[in-house]
Backbone:
């Protein structure tokens, strides 16, 4: 979609949360966004979904996929903040799966079935934490998240909010990039125990990094996120796919029951 075309066209309504007020749909106008896809341990992914009506949806070379998002919000309805996301692409149990889960990602947002189930989402803003949890059921925590986004490299770090030890860092050269379309998405989350689906409309001039040198390193922290990254087998691993853009925009719609 061209940036000359209207994007934030939906009427918004003011909503109250315990930290103040914001808007739905929620507009994210200027975002630096990098997504890294990793091959994760199959048993560990299944274990993380135990007790939920969700099943893993994406495989790559025989392993389930886990996504890591590195995000800096410069202008949005929730303010300015940094964020790091760990999510598992999933499908709700009992629904008819798409013919191809990978092709589902590039299909119509209204027909999308594969969604992201966020298992960790540290942010640097208390307001964002409250909004994310109360409006969408995202398990946000406040923690130090540092992003150093450069034209040819990145270095992202997350620290334990209590011990201040390193939880995880991802760094390296981005390599050569070719233009790529952004992937609209949905999320599956829980609000008061009820499974919710949130549609997210996106646009941005993304780059698919073909020969990147990014690698993840889990730190010495015993925080739950560090422990999960180790259990998923991601410590020391290189993502098999990296996409990034400094011109990302999105619209988060209201969460709806599945």
Residues:
């Amino acid at each position: 979609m061209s940036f000359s075309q209207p994007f934030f066209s939906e009427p918004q309504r003011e909503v109250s949360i315990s930290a103040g007020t914001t808007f739905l749909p929620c507009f994210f106008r200027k975002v630096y966004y990098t997504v890294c896809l990793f091959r994760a341990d199959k048993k560990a992914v299944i274990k993380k979904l135990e007790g939920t009506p969700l099943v893993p949806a994406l495989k790559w070379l025989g392993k389930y996929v886990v996504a890591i998002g590195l995000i800096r919000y410069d202008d949005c309805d929730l303010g300015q903040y940094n964020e790091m996301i760990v999510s598992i692409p999933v499908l709700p149990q009992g629904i008819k799966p798409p013919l191809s889960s990978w092709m589902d990602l590039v299909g119509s947002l209204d027909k999308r079935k594969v969604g992201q189930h966020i298992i960790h989402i540290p942010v640097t803003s208390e307001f964002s934490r409250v909004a994310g949890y109360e409006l969408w059921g995202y398990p946000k925590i406040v923690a130090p998240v540092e992003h150093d986004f450069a034209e040819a490299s990145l270095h992202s770090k997350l620290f334990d909010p209590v011990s201040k030890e390193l939880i995880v860092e991802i760094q390296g050269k981005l390599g050569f990039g070719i233009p790529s379309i952004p992937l609209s998405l949905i999320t599956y989350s829980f609000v008061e125990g009820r499974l919710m689906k949130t549609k997210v409309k996106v646009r941005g001039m993304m780059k698919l990094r073909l020969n990147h040198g990014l690698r993840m390193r889990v730190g010495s922290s015993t925080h739950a996120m560090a422990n999960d990254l180790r259990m998923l087998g991601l410590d020391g691993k290189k993502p098999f796919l990296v996409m990034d853009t400094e011109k990302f925009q999105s619209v988060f719609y209201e969460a709806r029951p599945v």
